[in-house]
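Hi support team,

I submitted a single chain yesterday and got back a structure, but I'm not sure I'm reading the token output correctly. Could someone confirm the output below corresponds to the sequence I sent? I've pasted both exactly as they appear in my results page.

Thanks,
R.
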Amino acid sequence: MPVLDPSALGERLAAHSRAVILANQAPNGAFLAGPTFPQYQFAWLRDGAFIAEALDLAGDHAAAGRFHDWVAGLVAGSRVGLARAVTDAGAGQAPDPADYLHCRYRIDGSPGPEDWPTFQLDGPGIWLWSLGVHARAGGRVTAAHRQAAALVARYLAALWAHPSYDAWEESPEHVHTSTLAGILAGLRALDTVAPEALAGDVAAARDALAARLLAGSGAFAKWDGNPGVDGSLLWLAAPYRLVDPRSERFAATLARIEAELVSPDGGVHRYRADTYYGGGEWLLLTAALGRVYLRRDDPGDRDRAAACLRWIEAQAGADLALPEQVATRALHPEHIGEWEERWGASARPLLWSHASYLALRRELLAAS
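Hi R., thanks for writing in. Yes, this is the structure output for that exact sequence:
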């Protein structure tokens, strides 16, 4: 069995990753997604949930708990609007934008500027899943956390089948597979964090969602009716554990991702038509691929996971900052300039990239 070489770079990058995450956590627990990139100087439920998972894997339960405190307070302050959103959904209507949970918030808990695709259902689901990780890792789960989990569960149970923006904040007219996966992972976490909430409409919605997402054959697709594959589908196996990575259906999905989205150098793209900053290779997806290999544990998979880790390490700058993506092998390089003119250079550091590196490295060390 190969043993991961704890190289000097790996040790330094791991320490720096933890430091940059904690340095950009506000006293109330919120994480700034990209502290030097103006469009990302907000706190996302999705990014924060993945960051908190990595902290729990590293044993930083107090920091992860502060994030869950922040989300619980945000949800409690939104409870009246969430109730209206549930009522509207029951009547077959989309919620009023003033009532739904937004994707990104200012540190004080107020919604970010309105010039953003804010209706995203995966974030609340991923937060619930992350709270379950926190509980299983030995982190504290408070009454406020459980109350917020119950509110979010009712909200997701009412709205899960509604179209919304996906994990990449695109295509709001569709119900996305990765969104359904995040919601199902969250509702399954209720068994750990708030089993009293898993009754009635919530239990029925979880069963219906599982049937829609997990039934069928052939590779998972970006959304029903879209034959394309998406890198976020890796999350079904790792870290959510919704499917066995060795199952026939996920194996077909992984084979497509490897053939269509993994570059010759080992980085992972989001999807073939991606033009955001040219459609580069994303560090957080490369980490997810490594974690899938570790969960599958076929011959050579630890070496493949280690290669993913080394690829991420190679993207670190002299200051050890990890970017969101790299454009060395961009799918559509003709689009890089338009994004740089609009927003400047691609985000660096991205806390989610640093968190994904920590999570993969932790799992790889544990498996060696």
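A quick pointer for reading it: Strands lie at 43-44, 104-105, 268-269, 281-282, 325-326. Let us know if anything else looks off.

Best,
Support desk
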